[in-house]
Amino acid sequence: MKYFFQSLLKTIPVLILITLIVFLLVRVTGDPVSLMLPETATDAERDSLRESMGFNDPIMIQYFNYLGDLVTGDFGDSFRYNTDALNLILERLPATIELAIAAMIVAIVISVPLGILSAVKRNSFFDLFITGGAVLGKAMPNFWLGIMLILLLSVTFQFFPVSGRGTFGHLVLPAITLGTGIAAEMTRLIRSSMLEILGQDFIRTARSKGLGEAIIVNKHAFRNALIPVVTIMALQTSTLIGGTLITETVFAWPGLGQLLVQSVNLRDMAVVQAATFIIAIFVILSNLIADLVYRLLDPRIKYD
Q: What transmembrane ranges does the database entry give (predicted)?
């Protein structure tokens, strides 16, 4: 618990740095007032809106005001949706979390058995086929795979809906699209971890005792090979969130990714800053949880 709370404190400067980077990037992309008002707006109307939103203040004053609003949970209002930006993010967040969890389940279901089989059958046809497929899966862009799945399984055979959200069928294709690249990377990592563990002394000792190969692989080898897998799963949180930006756009999935893409195009600063902040929190917490899971998998790991 001491390590947990110390790690939480260390996330504060990281979040502050993230807010500063996003704050500066959003403001150097152009004048948001020109997007909020119609082209027929007068200069007086533009100056009045700029003054009311604090855009005439020095940049550091704007940033400190922004930080003060963050402390109270006030990210401002979206000028496009005319509603609180944080509430808008929280409305879309469940759909993104649903898609991310489904994609991770797809990745685990594919990568765990294939990674173990590839390690156990090292240098065999199965090993070459699986490793080749993993390289191919990692190389395929999400948007291309999503479009191909839509053309094949939705348009040609009509097995699944083309787009939208609401039923299990709507979730299948986006989850496969997002989970394939992660599954490819995890398969290669599980294979290499299993090969390293299978060559260690305690595995040879277990075999000398007459234990079955299934028990050796599943109980002894796989658990010890999980630590790097947990690491990559935590690191894939950012990949999942980044992948949803493309996947949600391809499948018209009403989640945070689609909202963020639209807000960036329209320079809806309140939504962009709120979404980035929430995403950063999820990535940081996922890495912190991974650190704690290490201790459960390997009691030899100590936290100082």
A: 99-120, 141-160, 166-184, 225-251, 271-294
